[in-house]
Amino acid sequence: MVSLKSLPARVVLIGALICAALSGCTSAQTKLHNEICDSELQSPAHCWTLGGTTTVRHGLGPDDSNIIYYAGTGRPSGFVNYASFLGRVQPGRTYRFSAYVDGSGQIDVPPYVFLSAANGSWTGTSFTQAGKGRASITFSIPADSETTIIRGTFATENGTYPIGRGAIFAQPNLATSTGEEYAPSDDDVWTTGPDGGNLIAGSEPSARSHAWIMYGPVRAIARAGPDGSAAVVYAGTGLASGFGVGAAVDARVNPGVTYTFSAYLDGSAHEGTPPYVILSPIDGKWRGASIYQPARGRVFVTFTIPSDSGTTHVRMTFSTENGAYPRGSNALFAEPQLERGAFPHAYAVARS
User: Fold this and answer.
1) What is the pLDDT of residues 108-134, one digit of tens each?
2) What is each CA distance from 346 to 2, 298, 349, in whole angstroms?
3) What are the phi and psi torsion angles at 231 (to 5°)?
């Protein structure tokens, strides 16, 4: 199958006009519609979270697409092997989610796909795939749920796969159409930075930056993060890190405004407690927020500063929270971003 995304824009436009003029023809616009972030796994550090030993394999899926792969060991996989991604939805609408899943190598438990609310109150849904091919599910987002972003998770759920076999996931598609046709996602909304910019002045950590506070044995290392960004790194010793290990950076906020904080976190090597980012007020009486990451990838949390809180400054603190990391492994924190609104846009460097 030839991807519509690979066709010249003129051909796609002509096809759309012809289909619009014919009754019973599925429009090219509908086929191109996919609300998943980076369905082709071109930039997994920005849109995906990978847990355990799951990896991205290039060109091994349908139509030479990239895949998520769990390699079997002959033993139960545990519950830490998964891959998560994000998709956009609108309350009150019905959606069809489909993906290529190969669970045919499983000995006992097949792989699952879970869909859950990343914000709001939608209760979510799930399905399994014991064979291989495209699998799908239809669901509705309740009108009163306030859910605008969902999280999909492909997980082995302790299933056992022989050595040389594994579980495969590729080409997730989320659309309001009823068919299962796959089209690569249009990632413009996910790859552009926030309209108001990154509100964290000096978001790139540096040992010389006055914007950052370092706690304990952590270092700011240039080009250690995704796509060569700077990162705060804690080097594992094999022992519990203690609670005074991390780094903090501040930002101004306004009472009565909704914000989204996002960052890249790698806690995949953790033993015990995974790394946290704790958001706390420097002034006023806002209660704060937090998020943790037991895997590797971007995380986000949305919150509103109460209009009567008197909070005008927020501190964002990366903390190992006494987690242990084996020697040779790290906990890593990079690309912190605070933006107005309830959507996690792509990271934009904010200079001090």
Assistant:
1) 999 999 999 999 999 999 999 999 999
2) 29, 10, 10
3) -145, 155
